[in-house]
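Structure ticket #2291
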Amino acid sequence: MNRDDDLTTAAGAAETTPPVHARAGSRLGLALVVLIAAAAVIVASLNADKLAAMAVHAANASPGWLFLAVLSQCAAFLCTALAWRRVLVRLKEPVGLPALYPLSIAKLFADQALPSGGLSGAAFLLHALKRRGVSWDTAYTAFLFGAATFFAAFLLSAVVSFVAVAGADNTPRIVAVAARTFTILLTMAALAAAGAAVFRWTRAPRFIARFPAAARALAMSRNAAQRIAREKALFARVVWIQIIQRLFDALTLWFVFQAIGAPTTYVACFIGVTLASVAATVAPTPMGVGSFEGGLVAAFAVFGTPVDEALTSALIYRGLSLWLPLIPGFFVVQREFLSQRKSAGAEDRAGASPS
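Resolution: structure written out below.
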């Protein structure tokens, strides 16, 4: 029996006599929408003064400070390109910074447009490096180097930030306990990551050989992990580049605070960006929307920053570090795949032409 016919029949019956559970579901959905809308109105009315203050801060933001924030964020993307270039030079397949810099922005778009735990961005980077003459093994090693050093810099920054929050005078006791707990967990994660970095597979499981693509990926992962274990000095230098990137992220936020005329310290901005990144990583929200901003506001609450100033800065910072770069990232990704199709079409025409 055709399932489409069944669905059509059921739809026709539903039009004449809607089932009880369907009507109940519709009413429940309508009730939830009404409750959410009512809650939004109540929250907005209770915080009308804060919303008005946020609008005033954003409208009076200094263009000069915002321009410096844009430059700082551009420098943060440059650090990503520098990390890749350092590894590619070491592997004797260098690619110039003018070619790598747009890829650092486009990778952000690939990661956010198709949330996949970083796999979409990795696939894009491998494809882009291959188009620039880099071998698959070298491209994969460069990607893994970048991912491992980013993770190491992230863990180090998070541990330092949690220790600073736990020891702050204004930190509530429950927040201090949570910060110490996260510090211990992150330290254990760092040790586990270090152990995995030096672990070497001697032979792949037999069943992997049945899947050539999986066997190839496993072999490239093993070779990349072994190369990272051998290149300890290179790993340390690239970690420093990744830490400098995080310092530029904090500088961007500090410039934003200066733009709205809110006094704060650079250290508070570094801690705030780091803890907000942790919150965005832990919370299962697309692109960290809501969780990042909430984590940033919560972090600045420890330092006594008013909510309206912290939230205004968080929203502007996210616009500069996430939403605005998605625009050029989209065009770079589009250009990469359009160029690939043009190249493939040219090769097909060349192959079809008589010799």
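Closing remark: The mean pLDDT is 74.
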